């Protein structure tokens, strides 16, 4: 077989048929990882392509009026089950979108919510979800100003799906905040433990095979972010590591900014119960979704004051510096392991945990 | 049975069990009619209640910055089948939200789109839908600045559901435009024929039992509206009669403004093919959804120039005055029939045509 054979992939392994693009949607396309990125870059960006969307941040930065900008974001929520320790689909639908908007340094102001309801859904369940949305919206300080309701036949929609869109006002800051602004020398700070949300949902689904008391970390992060931006004018990137986990979010940032990121494994916080669940199931906490965690990338000189500010808040008590931005290799994330070697931390390839948000 | 028996409904008919609220979601809750209004007023408004949402317009009017307002709207789209004569779910997802935003007299600027994809969906179908969204967005002059993709298992989601949210900038106008601003003496103008969209979707579904060449009227109406607002400063209400049809939209306006509306049946335009389909199926075109029609309520003195402006546009060629705003009975819609009598035109009660948008 010649070296030019298209059936030989880049690692030299031989594939019996030429590698091809998937022609139908598979669960992995919703993973937040490589398959989803491929779908976005091959189907959505070529069609919708504009500089705002192509920036690839959690929210689009849109000019409004003569002199201001708004952050606009949307998230569809299909979590299964609807209720899990620490939250439910309603809390997720509000916090997920609030957080995406806040990641551009915006104050989330308005939310729109579209409900797809399954025939036969108990209205008492809908009421609980809606009440939870209300409480989360109050906590985040956002108003729900538009809504829509559709009903589909029994057997569709698993009770309900909720899609929210958020609209936030960019606050004055010396420079734009976004995934493309990480700079060599910057420090990477994480607000707390990894993997709580994914493991909590798996537990509620009965997929762990054992009892777990792990609660989801879902929380609106806008107040935490606001506190950070008040004390530091050198924050370059904010990102919440949701689908695809910390590993995928950092890979996205490394590519957007064309920098390398080096992590120190011993600093990365994971709860013992999450660690145990991951070991039993063969998961890596770096790839598990979080819904109330924040990555802050800021100039090294502001690291201490950002950490101190975060640690004073409920959602940032366990904030810790986990790595730094380097020049080489651009677009890659490396990890200094516990035994002192280095390994590449890649983007999530397929699907780890479907339907966790 | 005493007159006070709760089992006697208001028309005097006897119901074998006391009338009760539904405790589960039924298809009628997605109708756009009375059941949906009840669900909104009993579940959503009490939880989310704020003056913007409670205004009950197609879009929420939200203050932005110091001196401007934005129109924010959202729509979930679950149409079945995905493609039908004159359009598809993608065109619907863009135009539906563009139109809701435009109904407050706003220029639609930005769109966010959340996709719920069914495992097994052909990516070529997704690409067609996305291409159609692109074309509609270009036609409407709106940018798609945020998106999200989730995947659910085979058997859920009928291929795909799309929820869009739209953001529009309110343009300077002497007064606010909205369902609560109709005034006695105002004229009611309709931009064209009723029922085309609903009958086109039914035809594509094979539910008509015969061949039909009716095409959906889906279109972005923002350019038509912009033209109207340029020639008249006396427009009080704009509304697109979608789910629930003209009858339901006018009932909503009558209630919001606490006025009566009297229609003249002989003026109401319906295509012969739509009329035939309705007669065979026992439907009333007044209740069938439209996706490219506009109701304009303006001062009588501006009727002629609004009509003349509308008739110069593609989407308003058949514009016609169909009625007027009266003082009594407040909150009701009346129709002067072909034989000269008057009848009450009520809001849609249950569900007429599920899954048409």
Written overview of the protein:
- The structure is a homodimer of 357-residue chains.
- The first copy, chain A, has helices spanning 34-48, 51-54, 89-102, 123-140, 196-204, 222-231, 245-257, 272-281, 303-311; strands at residues 60-64, 68-77, 83-84, 87-88, 106-118, 143-152, 160-170, 187-190, 235-239, 260-264, 295-298, 320-326, 333-336, 342-345.
- Chain A is an alpha+beta fold.
- Chain A folds into 2 domains: 58-170, 60s Ribosomal Protein L30, Chain: A, CATH 3.30.1330.10; 179-344, Phosphoribosyl-aminoimidazole Synthetase, Chain A, domain 2, CATH 3.90.650.10.
- In chain A, the strands form 3 sheets. Chain A has a 7-stranded mixed sheet. A 5-stranded mixed sheet of chain A has the order 1-2-7-5-6.
- In chain A, helix 3 runs parallel beside helix 4 (123-140) and helix 6 (222-231) packs antiparallel against helix 9 (303-311).
- Chain A starts with 33 loop residues before the first helix and ends in a 12-residue tail after the last strand.
- Mean pLDDT of chain A is 91; it is low at 1-20.
- The interface between A and B is large, with 79 and 79 residues.
List the helices and strands and how they pair.
The structure is a homodimer.
Chain A: H1 34-48, H2 51-54, E1 60-64, E2 68-77, E3 83-84, E4 87-88, H3 89-102, E5 106-118, H4 123-140, E6 143-152, E7 160-170, E8 187-190, H5 196-204, H6 222-231, E9 235-239, H7 245-257, E10 260-264, H8 272-281, E11 295-298, H9 303-311, E12 320-326, E13 333-336, E14 342-345
Parallel strand pairs in A: 5-6, 10-13
Antiparallel strand pairs in A: 1-2, 2-7, 3-4, 5-7, 8-11, 8-12, 9-11, 10-12, 13-14
Helix pairs in contact in A: 3-4, 6-9
